[in-house]
Amino acid sequence: MSISEVQHQLNLTSYLNQQATVSVFLGVKEIQIDQVQQLVTNTYKLTFKNSNKKIILHTKSNNPQVIGNQLEKDYLIAQKLSAANMPVPKTLFYCGDQSIVGVPFYATEYVEGRLFNDKKLLSVSQTEKKLLFQEVSKALAHLHSISLNYLGLGELESQTSQYQTQNKKLYNLYKLHETKISTNVEDLLYWLPLNTPVKSELDNLCLIHGDFSLSKVVFHPTEPKVLAILDWQQAQLGNAFIDLASFVSPYYIPYSNGQHQVDGWFGIEEIIGQPNLQDVLQAYFTIRSSKTIPDIKYQLIMSILKQSIDQQILYKQTKEEKYQDNSHFLSKAGYEIILRMTEGDPFGIKMRATNDGQLWSNWPVSERCKSYYYRIKDFMRDEIFPVEKTILDKARAIPTTVQNKPILEVEELQRKAKAAGLWNLFISDPMYGKGLTNLEYVFLSELMGLSYLAHEIFNCFAPETGNIKLLIAYGTPYQKEKYLKPLLEGQCKSFFAMTEKNVPSSDPNNFQCTITPTEGGFILNGGKWFVSSAPDERAIFGIVMGKSSPDMSNPIESQSMILVDMNNPKIKIIRQFPVFGFYDIPHGYSEVEFDNAFIPQENLLGQLGGAFKMAQGRLLGGRLHHCVRQVGLTRRCLDLMMSRSEKRIIFKQSLKDNAAFQERLGDLEIAFQSCRLLSLNAGLLLDSAGSRHLHTFMAVSECKAHIPKACQYIIDQCVQAFGAEGVTEEQPLALAFRFARAIRFMDGPCEVHLRQVSRFAYGNHLFNDLNNAQGYGLAKL
């Protein structure tokens, strides 16, 4: 509702004249509106021609997503608080008739007095400031002492804490208005539930303001007296210390000299003459009959986090960068409190990282990466491994249709992982992911690889990983909204269709599936197979690579990629097939037929003819990720073999003490470490040299050519040492072996990469200036 709409509602004046409380308040017989001034959104000040008094109209927003959009509740709260001698504007009436101003509204008196912001506070003497702050503290203490029974909420009196609920609300609010991944916000959201404060009698459940600050308080024009506390739209049931923390939060928010609109006073309190924080808190707790001042830093962190999310909401609504900067500034301030509280170790990882010195060595990884590493490790220990076999047993089922239903246990684990902030860890772009480097993700991916299930649970599972990266790099705004967004949130699955059944698909000359341009789009015709995830009923779309030009003089520019919706009647899943007898439900591998399917123009991904270049970028990371995942699975097999060797007695000797076994184990461990170091080196080169550097291509090819074959050999030896149980589904050895064998041709067969390594080796040899040095070359007899 705009100001003009209010001013031109001819029946508003008539309606006000029917309200006796308004006439009595204004002291007039006939009400004559003079002006209507909008103060903030949905709040208007009315002045009158025949009275010096003013009233405020509070109108209901037409936007259901507006926080605190519960007008009747606000009115009732104001009535109750006024009756309890709480300094709030006096309520005059409530109107639910939308014909008056277009929406429901209620009226309160306009309280004349002083409102302070930071600039106005500078002109107030230190003595008066101290009195002003003490009066506010007392008013808050009075609010938090009002009985829930009096407010009609007595049935909730027995509850003691709303922190779990509040933390969940903050998380949901953040995700609803997320525009860019904020690692500080995510760390705060993860830390808060882990450190919920113990029960405190003073931190009682009560009515709280919900958005309290000094700027919401109207003071007497000349005296240090609170006349009214304004803006109760976010009033709710909560713990008392949340309001108090919101009030004193500027003491913990740094001063940025005007760079941000949300400056605090941290570091300059004495310079600007702010009252001593302990005196402010003491005034509150004295009224609450407490001789001690409890620690409220937890509530301070919650308050600053909420302020940060509020700024994020403003950024999403306005797209003004200043609000995003404000949000980052505040979340950093909140995280700094945690760092000071925990001596820089909020998640208790420093000791663990020190003990794992051999793991981290001097690799350039951040403390944030190490934090994610140990959080993932704990999650896998507590949540994944206990149910892993149950899930894998369901994944081994033989499908009876061409579509598979998801495994509920996996979906539940995904929800938990997402809530813990362990989600989309592979995305290095901070707009969409955690901003970790490739090297850092290698460490995390290797850890996830200890379980065949973990990558999916953390939304780091192929083919979604590659498809997400393609959409980030080449997707249009329309494609990102329709396809990328649900993938990032884990709301759907997708597939990538490149391999064709009767031809070697590593050679683009061989592709037979065609993408033919036509009016308004393309005709997709042909078949693909070994298409993973297509049978999953959650797979709503896929990316198909095919021949878009009959001119094969330059085969690299003859291929295109296109986004296809699975509800297209011309797209059919012909069948599912297992890999070494394993169907991997619900993902599976399938053969898909595209029977002259029409695909709209807007579904072309990237440029026409640009698929080969795009695919190489996708497959480069995909090859490394497959290898690193296999390294993790191989580590699990080695650990299982060593645990087994401790229990196996052969000819009165423990297997682990057998000399032949020890020699074999030594060889296997060295082979494993070579695989691991190859993958770490490739990750480091991706970061330092970039994805287009020849040395990076060589490093990834070395991984793809060596790691699958080496891991297959290591796992084979583990199976041999394990005995008959090693080839059964009782242990994950058989599954790991299947995967190792399969990835020897996934994303390009190992033989192709061996040839690549050979070429790179000769290239490096040609540029070795020592080749012509006397005595370095071939010996001359």
Automatic annotation (TrEMBL):
Domain Aminoglycoside phosphotransferase: 77-256
Domain Acyl-CoA dehydrogenase/oxidase N-terminal positions: 377-490
Entry keyword Methyltransferase: no
GO BP terms: fatty acid beta-oxidation using acyl-CoA dehydrogenase
Main location: mitochondrion
Superkingdom to which the source organism belongs: Eukaryota
Pathways involved: Lipid metabolism; fatty acid beta-oxidation
InterPro entries, A to Z: ACAD10_11_N, Acyl-CoA_dehydrogenase, Acyl-CoA_Oxase/DH_mid-dom, AcylCo_DH/oxidase_C, AcylCoA_DH/ox_N, Aminoglycoside_PTrfase
Recorded GO CC terms: mitochondrial membrane; peroxisome
Ranges where the Acyl-CoA oxidase/dehydrogenase middle domain occurs: 496-596
Record domain Acyl-CoA dehydrogenase/oxidase C-terminal: where: 612-760
Keywords recorded for this protein, A-Z: Flavoprotein, Lipid metabolism, Membrane, Oxidoreductase, Peroxisome
UniProt GO MF annotations: acyl-CoA dehydrogenase activity; flavin adenine dinucleotide binding
Places the protein is found: Mitochondrion membrane; Peroxisome
One Pfam family, short name: Acyl-CoA_dh_1
The protein's assembly and partners: Homodimer.
Function: Acyl-CoA dehydrogenase, that exhibits maximal activity towards saturated C22-CoA. Probably participates in beta-oxydation and energy production but could also play a role in the metabolism of specific fatty acids to control fatty acids composition of cellular lipids in brain.
PANTHER family: ACYL-COA DEHYDROGENASE FAMILY MEMBER 11, MEDIUM-CHAIN SPECIFIC ACYL-COA DEHYDROGENASE, MITOCHONDRIAL-RELATED
Protein's UniProt name: Acyl-CoA dehydrogenase family member 11
